[in-house]
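Task: sequence in, structure out. Protein: Dual oxidase maturation factor 1.
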Amino acid sequence: MKGWFDAFRNDGGPTLYSYSNRTPVTGDVSLITIFVLFGTVFVAFLLIFPGIRKERLTTFLTVTLVVFVGMTINVALLGSTWHTSTATIVSSYSAYSRQRMTAEIGGYIGLMHINITYRVLPESADMGDVEYNERFYWRKPHEMTDCFKDALFRGTPFPIVSLAEYFSLHQEGFSWGGKYREAGYYASVMLWTSFASWSMTGLLLVMVPRYGAYGMVFTGLCMLFTNLTYWSLLPCDPLVAHVDGSILIFNFGWNYWLVLVAGIAFLLAGVVITAIDMIFPHSFSTILEVDYDTPYDRHVIIEESFDTRRKDFRRKMGRIEDSFSDQFMSQVSSKLVNGNKEDHRGMVNRGYVSHPSDLQEDSSKGNWSYPFPPTPRRVV
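Result:
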């Protein structure tokens, strides 16, 4: 079994893991997890989409937009590209060193942190593979100071320390760190509000699509207000960092623009659905509704209520017509009967009887009631 259990071991010692597994800012594990999670949900929806026979367009657009907005909110909360800048510098690896190398440095500012990357370009082949990614947090008032001191203690490359010094909270004469921390704090509050509204919007779209459209409008407004808050709280004097003769000018990154686009799309979708529902009530529908295409579906209930109202109306109108016709016919018939009685009424001869035997026959009949009883003829 030699060669099987002694792999990666030297002189019978334990396995040597000589390669670090540090994750660069462009491949953050948390962001990859969010992409995989929402991508799995959307792929599952695409697998069942061919079996949908009704409301295909509205269902596809609604699900796609909801998944996209939810992913955008989570990525923006954990992302590091709200304000970014990159530059190529020629500097020393450590302070007071005469050796110069060409490298690329980048600053990626998130809501509660900044990532600073440092990568030596292939032109400086004698230095080998040098790549750094350092994250400095400012979630607490003194956390940025502690991270900065820890970077100095660990011997972080000099360009990274030089750029991180600009974000130290009100130290060394720099105040940009406090402004970025304030902007990130209030923007994160608005994003968490957007996330709560987005969650409620998903439930409302399943239960009552009309109120789901209202939730889409509110969520879109919260996301747009997030962009407005972050933009308004940025430093009045833009940050221009100088690192070994190179200049880094920070601009809005793709996280900022992604939230802006998603907020506008969600807001417009909510407004359009609300307008359609007002003009054509109860016309917007998706297959995501709880009672869709069942006897308890709101469309079925509405149609049945309309049919019931029509039937009740017809029944009432029929009764009214029948009662009116009955009254009219009774009045007409009564007038006709009275007219016939008056026309055919004649003189009654009470004193005439045809024959005495007729009286016996008449008396022998059943209990027939005659209008006038017969009067016997008087014999003189």
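Residues 29-288 form one domain.
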